[in-house]
Amino acid sequence: MSFQLRIAAAAAALVCTGIATAGTLTIESWRGDDKATWEQVLIPAFQKANPGITVKFLTTTPNEYNAAVNARFIAGTAGDLIQCRPFDLAETMYKAGNLADIAALPGMKNFPTSAKLAWQTADAKSAWCMPMASVIHGYFYNKKVFAELGLKVPTTEAEFFDVLAKVKSAGKVAPVSLGTADGWETSEIVYTGQGPAYWKGEEGRQGLIKGTKKFSDPEFVAPLKFMEKLADYLPKGYQAQGYGDSQTLFASGKAAIIPTGSWDISFYDKEGKGLEYGAFRPVVPKKGDTCYISDHIDMAMGMNSKTKNKKDAEVFLNWMAGSEFAELFGNKTPGFFPLSSAPVKLTNPVAAEMLSWRKDCKPTIRAQVQHLDKGQPSLGAELQVVGQGVINKKLSPEAGGKQLADGLAKWYKPAN
């Protein structure tokens, strides 16, 4: 079954699972890893401050979330509060009339303009989601494996593949835990995490938006070549390996490196029994090159425009904009960096390490999320198909870049 058909089937199956019942606030989210934190920490803290408001937290798997929530909007069963992805996806929900305009909520004043950019109109007169957190892309590595093999944390592409070659030669663990069964793992983690080092972050991303650069240009094909090289260092049967499988392999100590992001810190702290791991930033093409990181405005919270609990939902959103939520969320979900102006001290060492990269690296966000994912074919979907094809060695990097460029040019005028 194709990826698109799987999404449609999942959406149909999940239409009836949403709850929008008067007297209870229901949150829709793709973050299953955070479920315990919401239920045991965040929601109790909110209810202590606001007794009488009941809150439930429902999750849908990440790659099914958008289609499933849209299906529930149509069926009238969507939750009261909708966790929002950035830019085009949430904006589409707003323009369809499914998300309420929350620009006037007092809590919105607690966020800088840069944090609200992904969820408001250009003139800032309307906003559909309240900012929550950003995430930073990079790599996690097994400290024990590195120590046993005498490996140093790589900073350049050559050093990176030299490390992988040495791990492969040792034959004890997989060099890289990565699969292609879930297309978003190849696109949203590898391509848009490592890619900015080649297309120079915002310079390349803005070039795509303006139409002065194309995915077929060398700097956008380069990360596809990087991904093609990765295929030689992946676990046996990686074509059938999903994201959860990748997580489990690394957590169990059976892989040296995993391409990932700060959002996975909580998972490995919980599931990595005996795992000692650290983080290193995306490698640069050659020594001396500028470091770029994807410091991605990742999530926010919107309100269902048809909620039966508008007042309670507004109370919850305003609470989320305060210092109590920022402090709890930043430390109970390490790797999700609060976007509010409230000062937060992070206690998790890996989260603190990744946050420190902001001092030396230029920030950017995922290349496809602003303006470029609104048409058909969807750039996000195309990136998944191309990423899978390249790593599975069924598509050359050059052909992949051309496919992305041609697909975007079909509907995005600046790309012509």
UniProtKB/TrEMBL annotation:
UniProt keyword annotations, A-Z: Signal, Transport
Major location category of this protein: periplasm
Transmembrane helix found in the keyword field: no
A Gene Ontology cellular-component term: periplasmic space
Endpoints of the signal sequence: 1-22
Subcellular location: Periplasm
InterPro entries: Bact_solute-bd_prot1, SBP
Entries under Pfam families matching the protein: SBP_bac_1
Function field: Part of a binding-protein-dependent transport system for a sugar.
Family recorded in the similarity comment: Belongs to the bacterial solute-binding protein 1 family.
PANTHER family: ARABINOSE-BINDING PROTEIN-RELATED, BINDING PROTEIN COMPONENT OF ABC SUGAR TRANSPORTER-RELATED
Name the record gives this protein: Probable sugar-binding periplasmic protein
Organism listed in the record: Rhodoferax aquaticus
Lineage, highest ranks first: Bacteria, Pseudomonadati, Pseudomonadota, Betaproteobacteria, Burkholderiales
